[in-house]
Amino acid sequence: MMKNNMQGNVIDKKTNKLEYKNYINSLFDLYSSLLTEKQIEYFKYYYFLDYSLREIASIYNVSSNAIYDQITKIEEALEKYESLLHLKKLNEKRLDVLEVMIDDVGKLEEIVRRINDEDLNRVFESINKDIKNMKELEKME
Prior knowledge:
Elements: E1 2-4, E2 10-12, H1 17-31, H2 37-48, H3 53-60, H4 64-85, H5 87-115, H6 118-140
Antiparallel strand pairs: 1-2
Helix pairs in contact: 1-4, 2-4, 3-4, 5-6
């Protein structure tokens, strides 16, 4: 199974297992609320707890092949949601914009300090505080 990563490069599920796992986990973070409870359970056992298909199958008293099919369907569903809604892509763009804003504020800070205008300093501090708050919110996600 070949999937696109953040940079638009193709991720081969078999040769880039860790990269694919990170990719599919990020989709799960965004779209898990669109899955059924059973799908969420299967996903968590397989991806979070690293259970084998056989171990999951024994928990639910089904075949390993049934679990494999379910995991495949879950991955496909997550990828379909991303292709339709683009939340991951939009989130990455938002993070890129935030990083640019942080860099720009750093450059602006020196200019504002040299001008030494009280009103300008207040406005700058307010903007700087807002950007820091945005950055803190990103850490919470």
